[in-house]
Design brief:
By secondary structure, the protein is α/β, with parallel strands linked by helices. Helix content is 34%, strand content 27%. It contains 14 helices and 18 strands. The strands form four sheets. The protein has a seven-stranded parallel beta sheet, sandwiched between helices. It has a seven-stranded mixed beta sheet with strand order 10-11-12-7-15-16-18. Strands 8-9 form a two-stranded antiparallel sheet.
Length: 416
């Protein structure tokens, strides 16, 4: 199969291409980017003759020509505007799509749209439905949101729901954090592992969750938890808060009484973000400074980003703890899923690039091989089920990404 990667010179896109190039079933991996120099640098780093370079703008006419040479396109772009443009073109051309954006394209997030261009005469929801219908008409699978979260987290929560006779609540806790030593050296106890502008966006918007059977909107960073993580030989205290990472579950699992996704950080991170928010430093409304209009969030991101980039020898960690609650055999039951993955010191691939990029690469191969036969916009929890779930977890394990499942059934009528 031949697979095209958009955003393939970025850290996560390059990890997708690196992984695909090592698979025997993949004949060619195309990379599209504006910079010919960045493309050559990425090809040298991957070290495979399977890599085919396509210099050009992913939003330009060159993309349509490149799409014609591939069966599947993986979209590893950092914003909604370009991701939707690329998905639109691929669907119209009849090319299967794998996207890792934290967005459920069937129901686009209405807040802070990042330049999303909805066709004239359509609402965002109507556009999502149009994309779905076009994908069905053109026999296209659009695997929507496969990486870490959305992605691995969706797939494991979906499996947890299937493990129980009746699932009533689920919470997904996921995050990319610096390793402990690096966290002590950076502001916010944080380190940039992907698009920082998008991270700040997620801290400021409204988020849909399920509470007591109702879909409600809440502010991001509410419903905070502090919890111990004691798996894989790790013993750390972490914190998490609601963010918009897995929006598909509101629509694909309406039977859940309660559902939320939360982003994990080191303790103290969210308190520091609160200070930035309270001071107006994460607002988008411009302020005038010496005659120039400046968006506070853009200024904050520009100032903080250099201080949050990994330094020499600094690595990151991706951590996950997902919980599904319900009943099994008439008794209260729960299923928990755990992951703790660290940067690879040999390849230099970050933990975030590993769990996001490798998951997307596996999903792309599943689509290309015809193992996912559903057409239209398909969420990961609906695509990777049954034997394919076991195969997906085994593929992660082959890349030394371990997912641990723990099932508990109460004999006393309640669960902690």
């Amino acid at each position: 199969m031949k697979i095209l990667v958009l955003g393939g010179t970025g850290k996560i896109g390059a990890a997708v291409a690196w992984d695909l190039a090592r698979e025997e079933s993949v004949e060619a991996v195309g990379l599209v980017a504006r910079s010919a120099e960045a493309l050559q640098r990425t090809k040298r780093w991957i070290g495979s003759e399977k890599i085919v370079l396509h210099p050009g703008d992913v939003a330009g006419p060159g993309l349509e020509q490149a799409l014609g040479e591939y069966e599947v396109v993986v979209i590893a772009l950092p914003d909604r505007r370009t991701s939707y443009r690329a998905a639109h073109q691929a669907i119209v051309r009849g090319v299967h799509v794998v996207d890792m954006l934290e967005e459920y394209h069937r129901r686009p997030d209405p807040y802070e749209t990042e330049g999303l261009e909805v066709p004239a005469g359509m609402t965002a929801e109507e556009y999502g439905d149009w994309l779905h219908r076009e994908a069905l008409r053109n026999e296209v699978t659009f695997l929507d949101g496969i990486g870490f979260a959305p992605g691995i987290s969706n797939i494991t929560v979906g499996e947890g729901i299937r493990r129980l006779d009746h699932a009533v609540a689920a919470v997904a806790r996921v995050g990319g954090i610096p390793n402990k030593a690096a966290a002590a050296r950076h502001p916010l106890r944080y380190m940039v592992t992907w698009a920082f502008d998008h991270v700040l966006r997620e801290y400021m918007i409204k988020v849909q969750v399920k509470k007591d059977g109702q879909v409600v909107e809440v502010d991001a960073l509410t419903d905070r938890e502090t919890f111990p993580f004691r798996q894989f030989g790790v013993d750390e205290v972490l914190e998490c808060a609601i963010t918009p990472g897995m929006p598909s579950f509101i629509h694909t699992r309406p039977e859940l009484r309660d559902f939320a996704e939360k982003t994990i950080r080191w303790p103290g991170h969210y308190a520091a973000v609160d200070v930035l928010r309270e001071c107006g430093l994460l607002d988008l409304d411009p302020v005038h400074l010496d005659g120039a209009a400046v968006a506070p969030r853009e200024f904050t991101a520009r100032v903080l980003s250099p201080r949050l980039r990994p330094g020499p020898g600094e690595g990151d960690v991706c951590v996950m703890w997902n919980t599904v609650r319900g009943t099994k055999a008439g008794r209260p039951a729960r299923v928990d899923y755990y992951l703790w993955d660290e940067a690879d010191p040999v390849t230099g691939i970050s933990a975030m690039a590993r769990v996001t990029g490798f998951a997307a690469a596996i999903g792309a191969r599943f689509v290309g091989a015809g193992k996912i036969r559903k057409r239209g916009i398909v969420a990961p929890e609906d695509a990777i089920v049954g034997d394919l779930y076991s195969e997906f977890i085994a593929e992660l394990a082959r890349r030394e990404i371990a997912v641990r499942e723990v099932e508990s059934i109460s004999s006393r009528g309640c669960l902690p």
